[in-house]
């Protein structure tokens, strides 16, 4: 049965709750950030107070490609400013992965497909309460391009889809870097962030801490014996293309 239409505006707040110190910059202190979650319905009219123009639509679209400078390691409660969750709404966690950093602190910009992975968790714990947390995928590329002490970003490898400024420091021959930004998978009680050109990264489902690279295919292949002609051909092709995808040439 389809759930009834509802619209919920979610407000990030740090009042009386633990928070991350750098979640909001000083220039935006006191100005809450909002995210809207809505289920579309053809029979539900759009409130006249909501802006409806091509400029507004373009601005909303542009926000999809904005860098996220801060993480939220400590879960934050999302406060409903409009509406409420429907009665009987399922409890659980919704994970979302996507680009988090596409413009560094030194003027370089990468294609969104090369943006560093940013994992978020929305935990529905009952009573209309939703807890939010977010962390970057600690890939090898992220550790290299993010200064541990200052948390400043400096892109060092362009990525296949990117065009960086010519003064890039420490250029590399690698065309691809595993940024683990494509999707998120919960499988067998484990949590993974995926990327088409490399191995998945595994996470601790509660804290969102990065565990590390996981070669699931190699593990599965080790449990198989023999295999037909199709399996042998697939293994042969994978052996040739995998080093290229990982930039090992």
From TrEMBL:
This protein's record includes keyword Signal: yes
Gene Ontology MF terms in the entry: 9-cis-epoxycarotenoid dioxygenase activity; metal ion binding
InterPro entries tied to this protein: Carotenoid_Oase
GO cellular component: chloroplast stroma
Gene Ontology BP terms: carotene catabolic process
Origin: domain of life: Eukaryota
Signal peptide: 1-21
Alphabetical UniProt keywords: Dioxygenase, Iron, Metal-binding, Oxidoreductase, Signal
Cofactor(s) the protein requires to work: Fe(2+)
Protein's UniProt name: Carotenoid cleavage dioxygenase 7, chloroplastic
Protein family membership: Belongs to the carotenoid oxygenase family.
Pfam families: RPE65 (PF03055)
PANTHER family (UniProt xref): BETA-CAROTENE DIOXYGENASE (PTHR10543), CAROTENOID CLEAVAGE DIOXYGENASE 7, CHLOROPLASTIC (PTHR10543:SF37)
